[in-house]
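R.M. (postdoc): so does anyone remember the format we settled on? I'll just put the structure tokens first.
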């Protein structure tokens, strides 16, 4: 019998924790994206690549954009976080990392409930996502 049926269809505490973290994290990420975009387009925070150059670079291959704009690869963008066009990435990173962030508190919760197999799976998921995000493993996809 599944865990859900044992609880008469009610979500477990681990599921509630995951859902709450995902809800608030997703809305926070979207809010950050809106705020940082407004800061960028308003000119309150100057961009690394000037706005007037962006339309000229749109028709170019990405490598041309990276070269002309002197834009770093991988996590190198973090060095430019004070620039409006790279500050926008903060909300995107938050959204992209929500699965990893939400899994972390599940591990002790699952261990406490005696679900060691599920805790191990959650731990493995955290490790795989962290490794993928680190950029240490290059799968050749981009």
């Amino acid at each position: 019998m599944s865990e859900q049926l044992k609880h008469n269809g009610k979500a477990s505490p681990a599921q509630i924790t995951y859902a709450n973290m995902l809800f608030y994290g997703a809305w926070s990420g979207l809010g950050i994206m809106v705020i940082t975009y407004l800061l960028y387009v308003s000119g309150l925070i100057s961009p690394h690549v000037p706005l007037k150059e962006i339309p000229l670079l749109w028709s170019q291959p990405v490598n041309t954009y990276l070269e002309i704009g002197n834009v770093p690869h991988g996590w190198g963008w973090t060095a430019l976080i004070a620039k409006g066009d790279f500050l926008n990435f903060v909300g995107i990173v938050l959204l992209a990392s929500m699965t990893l962030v939400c899994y972390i508190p599940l591990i002790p919760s699952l261990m406490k409930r005696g679900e060691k197999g599920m805790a191990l799976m959650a731990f493995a998921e955290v490790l795989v996502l962290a490794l993928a995000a680190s950029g240490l493993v290059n799968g050749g996809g981009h």
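R.M.: ...and that's the designed sequence above, right after the tokens. Also worth knowing: The chain is about 65% helix and 0% strand. The chain has a mean pLDDT of 87.
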